[in-house]
Design a protein that fits this description.
alpha+beta
Amino acid sequence: MSTLASKDFLSPVAKVLIAALMSIILLLVFINSRDLSKVREPDASPAQVLQLRFEDRPDGSIAIIDYKTGKQIDAVQGEAGFVRGTLRGLAQERKRRGLDSGPPFELIYRADGRLTLSDTATGRLVDLESFGPTNAGTFFRLFNASNVVTVSKS
């Protein structure tokens, strides 16, 4: 028997590093297999709900339309990065799923003061207050521009 065959091929340090690397890989696979998007605080009951439709206009603005009346209640002009970015993300999700722009979005003001934009077509929720009061305020002003549906707490 040769001395090479009986000798350990890897040093103890290399064995420890390989074991640590394998452990990290297994941990990452486990974490990625979990749906952590479902881990969130329960939503407070809605205090006010506004159903909206958003339409791109030829001049580059976005018309904000009351879904029930079909009346334009506001428009997004110019940069408006947060509003445009939020709506772009929701629209891309609909496009990925092959959905049209028909179903409304719901802007929900909750009893605990939180503001949520809900896509009724995909079920996706955006907790707007998570982006700070200035950004949430760009959506909250829509309640002043429209006749708001107040939800009773029965």
